[in-house]
Amino acid sequence: MVNIRVGCQTEKPSKTEKMNRNRQNFPILITERLTLRKLSKNDSEEILQLRSDTGINKFLDRKPSKTLEDALNFIYSILENEKDELFYWAITKTGKDKLLGTICLFDFSGDLKKGEIGYELLTEYHGQGIMIEAAKKVLEYAIKTYGLKAIDAQTHKDNQHSTKLLEKLNFKKLNNVIENNPNLILFRLTT
User: Fold this and answer.
1) What are phi and psi of 87, to 5 degrees?
2) In a domain, 109, yes or no
């Protein structure tokens, strides 16, 4: 996106416009062991695994995927919505392309001071420190690149792994009630 011209003057683009302009090149994030890249249709088998896993879905209020077509439709919906202030990364081991899980930033406030993080990991990769490594990188990116002052996360009250992860990342539990779902707990990281 270019600067907006008003008469003969040029106004600086807003933070939202800067964000959208920067989004033309999807940010690839790299950690010591991981590469966080753009989701692709080649991830459909792993997305089907994630979205049909009963252990993962018991904490999420979503309709499970049943077919590869369901997974592809989900991927296409993510790719279509990325331009609308959604960052959705496939988590992979550096040098390998297989999706291990996903992590996303979304629901940015109008002034870009607040957003939300979400994540899920194939169960075979639990307990290996993958999600904390990925989340630290995404949080660093959100804070340094966009200056977010608060990042929210919602997790099911019985999802102890997610609760422990958020606490390790210095998120604080809030007493706010999540509308329409009393089983969810709201956590917030402030910078």
Assistant:
1) -110, 120
2) yes
**29: left (phi > 0), else alpha (psi -120 to 50), else beta?**
beta
Residue 13 covered by a domain: no
Task: Show pLDDT as tens, one digit a residue, over the chain (191 residues).
Answer: 222 222 222 233 344 444 443 445 899 999 999 999 999 999 999 999 999 999 898 898 788 899 999 999 999 999 988 765 789 999 999 999 999 999 999 998 877 689 999 999 999 999 999 999 999 999 999 999 989 999 999 999 999 999 999 999 999 999 876 777 888 999 999 98
Which CATH number goes with the domain that contains 150?
3.40.630.30
